[in-house]
């Protein structure tokens, strides 16, 4: 037996709060000892040494048999909370052990060859640790955690912020509705006043059931011009269901979809697809997503669409913009529309072709699809087809890829090879042959076309020169070559048009650190056999420098040319900005295009991490102008507002809202949005409102019901949710402030934080016979959260107290009496006075949690003893009822 008799006399002068904390610390620090600890209570300055209960500290690491709610830590990687049972193994009498259930063992992500060798106990419900030598399991009630230490050799591949598939969560069943709304009102003042009102929106509605995600995309537009009829539309543009198949590392989709291909052009169809999902790979092995750059002449709305379906829209301030958060699953050409406040519209296309198609050695990636081509109004527009493609990593340098698309009157096949050139970059080359039989064309009747398409792609980062060719590609198609999308368009219209010939794409970045200069060039050139060429050039230069006491000044130049249908749209934008104030910046901007030029002075500032604004004034050819732009990330939605006035031309105002609703069994929450229909985490703080939470964006707070939804969540990525302790309300305490886990695509994750909120008070606990609970007894609220520990003579410091609360006092491993708090609690300035609370031993009902969980903040709870004369201070003046007659005898 181990005793505490070695503690010397000076310890007697330690205050009782520190002494209780020391006892707890000593008991917890002795976990390496298997034997039971015996406390020498003679050293305690306690009036009644016979009335002491330290059983919970007597055996280090000991937990009573029962059910516990723990966060799981596997070699310091945290898993979400789950239930863990403690059982007494066969042949033992008093030592319980954690039961690692088959479900929990699956989340360990053991190597497959180890699974048949595992041994079990408790009727096959619990893993025998003898199966995995070197494995240790320890439960810690103080932080509600179960620590599992495993040799790394037993585990599958893991990476920073990425978990193997065995640890992915499918989330809870639920429903969601996400929206992105934009509204604009303007008045043209040139040539008579005309008021125009327009609104547009898009979003996703969905339901999650187990591993399945059901989604429906919607979009709407409304235009009202003075003197003309209102035009409006609301369309459900896409219905589909999908799920992750972890064992294949693939995504299965049923319903309306777009052909996802790195080889063939994309088109819309209804059917099914099975695609290797690169998002399931570690982040450093994932793919490439397109980006969109341009220059807005005013506060503008940017709408990105593909084959009639809006896939992205946002409002941008005047000047250059860069959209980099498009989904990397996009393929083929996408259309970009920049709608200015004066009614003018820029349109151009962006090709989303990916970087060279290379695959890791020994890995096989594939994409399979079958169905019927359809348009965005759900009408069938072609015969049944099937398609498939693959990429195989032959060795460390070579990849082989290819595939085909086949229908009754159309067939194409491709084969290509990719080569990692190491210090010289990566290169790929492929050839595609297509044969198309068209019927009933307007001019030529029935006709069969066939031809080849050749593509060369290159990518390279030149680290020594601080530059990168993000993507460079060349494609040439013979006149008889038709892609599936071209074939479908010709068959539906009766005319073959926009027959592609050549395409060049280049994206290049260059850094000059010694000059503080960076350059970005983007070039797109498309030629046709039967149409004029299309070109898009853009150049961006940025330089940072200091002038005397002025630091961090910057100059930015953006120039572009869009050539479409033999018409040029040229423009340039120049700005000089310098810091102004603590978080603001002042800039001088000039922009030029064929129709107008303007000069502006703008001021930008951040009010806080959620809010920023920009004010501008200046002049153009037609006169002076004033504009403003405001952005706020509220808990319920992201809000953008703008207004512009241009002398003798127009005045306008705009507003956009982005957010959503998420509903699960635990509640319904309105929240701001991120990726429409995407992954999210529903957070519950035990009904305590105004708790600050952080994901990867700005802080949000729980609503009146103590709930919130975080949408800045990445699929197949270890996401972290934390309580912001710096801004936590003073009357709230949280036992564990960080929780993390990995969710599959589209999942609704659930994280619950045990939050104790309410007043604090010093109390004197008394039993019906005028005695007091034993020293070391624990006090729990109705949720099973510990809110205090009994000190000498029943003196107890209590936290998280609310009117009408019921508290239970535990010793000898069970609830012994119950306290009912009054309807009115003392004011905050009276909480330091001892408060007399009777503890009734009759009619005790079980608390919510059958297990006793010690919260992490209880190790330092004071258990002060106060002179008995202070009992007389408790009176009706404090808002409490007088002590009962049995206590006054």
UniProtKB/TrEMBL annotation:
Entries under PROSITE patterns matching the protein: FIMBRIAL_USHER
Signal peptide: 1-34
Topology relative to the membrane: Multi-pass membrane protein
UniProt xrefs under InterPro entries: Fimb_usher, Fimbrial_membr_usher_CS, FimD_plug_dom, PapC-like_C, PapC-like_C_sf, PapC_N, PapC_N_sf
Key words, A-Z: Cell outer membrane, Fimbrium biogenesis, Membrane, Signal, Transmembrane, Transmembrane beta strand, Transport
Positions of the PapC-like C-terminal domain: 765-820
Main location as per UniProt: membrane
Domain named PapC N-terminal: residues: 38-183
Subcellular location(s) per record: Cell outer membrane
Cross-referenced NCBIfam families: PRK15284.1
Family: Belongs to the fimbrial export usher family.
Name of protein: Outer membrane usher protein
């Amino acid at each position: 037996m181990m005793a505490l008799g070695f503690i010397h006399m000076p310890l007697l002068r330690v205050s009782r709060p520190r002494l209780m904390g020391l006892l707890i610390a000593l008991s917890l620090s002795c976990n390496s000892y298997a034997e039971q600890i015996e406390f020498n209570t003679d050293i305690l300055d306690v009036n009644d040494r016979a009335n002491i209960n330290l059983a919970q500290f007597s055996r280090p690491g000991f937990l009573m048999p029962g059910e516990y709610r723990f966060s799981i830590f596997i070699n310091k990687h945290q898993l979400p909370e789950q239930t863990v049972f403690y059982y007494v193994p066969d042949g033992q009498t008093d030592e319980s052990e954690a039961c690692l259930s088959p479900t929990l063992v699956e989340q360990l992500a053991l190597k497959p060859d180890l699974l048949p060798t595992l041994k079990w106990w408790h009727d096959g419900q619990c893993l025998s640790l003898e199966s995995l030598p070197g494995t240790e399991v320890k439960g810690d009630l103080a932080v509600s955690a179960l620590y599992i230490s495993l040799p790394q050799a037993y585990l599958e591949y893991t990476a920073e912020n990425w978990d193997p598939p065995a640890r992915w969560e499918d989330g809870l069943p639920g429903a969601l509705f996400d929206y992105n709304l934009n509204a604009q009102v303007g008045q043209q003042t040139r040539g008579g006043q005309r008021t125009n009102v327009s609104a547009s929106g898009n979003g996703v509605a969905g339901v999650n059931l187990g591993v399945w995600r059901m989604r429906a995309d919607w979009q709407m537009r409304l235009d009202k011009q003075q003197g003309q009829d209102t035009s409006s539309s609301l369309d459900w543009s896409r219905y589909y269901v999908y799920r992750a198949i972890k064992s294949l590392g693939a995504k299965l989709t049923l319903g309306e979809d777009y052909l996802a291909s790195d080889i063939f052009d994309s088109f819309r169809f209804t059917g099914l697809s099975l695609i290797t999902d690169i998002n399931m790979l570690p982040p450093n092995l994932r793919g490439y997503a397109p980006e969109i750059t341009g220059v807005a002449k005013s506060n503008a709305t940017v709408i990105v669409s593909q084959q009639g379906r809006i896939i992205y829209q946002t409002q941008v301030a005047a000047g250059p913009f860069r959209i980099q958060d498009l989904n990397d699953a996009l393929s083929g050409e996408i259309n970009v529309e920049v709608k200015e406040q004066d009614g003018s519209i820029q349109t151009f296309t962006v090709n989303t072709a990916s970087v060279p198609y290379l695959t890791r050695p020994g890995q096989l990636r594939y994409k399979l699809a079958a169905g019927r081509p359809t348009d965005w109004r759900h009408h069938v527009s072609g015969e049944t087809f099937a398609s498939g493609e693959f990429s195989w990593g032959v060795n460390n340098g070579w990849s082989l890829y290819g595939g085909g698309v086949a229908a009754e009157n159309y067939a194409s096949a491709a084969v290509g090879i990719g080569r990692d050139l190491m210090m010289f970059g990566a290169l790929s080359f492929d050839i595609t042959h297509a044969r198309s039989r068209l019927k009933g064309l307007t001019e030529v009747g029935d006709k069969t076309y066939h031809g080849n398409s050749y593509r060369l792609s290159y990518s390279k980062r030149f680290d020594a020169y601080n530059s990168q060719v993000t993507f460079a590609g060349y494609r040439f198609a013979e006149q008889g070559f038709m892609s599936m999308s071209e074939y479908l368009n010709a068959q539906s219209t009766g005319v073959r048009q926009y027959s592609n010939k050549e395409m060049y794409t280049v994206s290049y970045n260059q850094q000059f650190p010694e000059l503080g200069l960076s350059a970005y060039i983007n070039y797109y050139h498309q030629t046709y056999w039967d149409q004029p060429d299309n070109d898009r050039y853009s150049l961006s230069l940025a330089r940072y420098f200091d002038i005397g006491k002025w630091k961090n000044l910057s100059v930015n130049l953006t120039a572009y040319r869009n050539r479409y249908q033999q018409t040029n749209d040229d423009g340039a934008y120049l700005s000089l900005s310098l810091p102004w104030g603590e978080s603001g910046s002042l800039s001088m901007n000039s922009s030029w295009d064929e129709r107008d030029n303007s000069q502006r002075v703008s001021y930008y500032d951040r009010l806080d991490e959620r809010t920023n604004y920009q004010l501008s004034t200046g002049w153009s050819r037609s006169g002076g102008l004033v504009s403003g732009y405001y952005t706020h990330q509220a808990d319920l939605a992201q809000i953008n507002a703008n207004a512009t006035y241009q002398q003798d031309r127009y005045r306008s105002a705009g507003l956009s809202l982005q957010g959503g609703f998420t509903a699960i069994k635990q509640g319904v929450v309105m929240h701001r949005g991120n990726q429409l229909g995407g992954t999210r985490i529903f957070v519950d703080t035990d009904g305590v409102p105004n708790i600050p939470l952080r994901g990867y964006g700005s802080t949000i707070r729980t609503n009146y019901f103590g709930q919130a939804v975080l949408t800045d969540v990445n699929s197949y990525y270890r996401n972290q949710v934390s309580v912001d302790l710096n801004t936590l309300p003073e009357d709230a305490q949280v036992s564990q402030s960080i929780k993390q886990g990995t969710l599959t695509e589209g999942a609704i994750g659930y994280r619950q934080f045990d939050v104790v909120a309410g007043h604090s008070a010093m109390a004197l606990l008394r039993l019906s016979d005028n005695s007091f609970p034993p020293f070391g007894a624990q006090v729990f609220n109705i949720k099973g959260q510990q809110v205090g520990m009994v000190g000498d003579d029943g003196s107890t410091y209590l936290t998280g107290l609310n009117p009408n609360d019921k508290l239970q006092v535990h010793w000898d491993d069970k609830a012994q009496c119950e306290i009912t708090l009054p309807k009115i609690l003392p004011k905050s300035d009276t909480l330091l006075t001892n408060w007399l609370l009777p503890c009734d031993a009759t009619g005790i009902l079980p608390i919510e949690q059958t297990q006793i969980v010690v919260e992490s903040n209880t190790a330092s709870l004071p258990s002060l003893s106060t002179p008995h004369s202070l009992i007389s201070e408790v009176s009706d003046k404090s808002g409490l009822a007088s002590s009962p007659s049995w206590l006054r005898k």
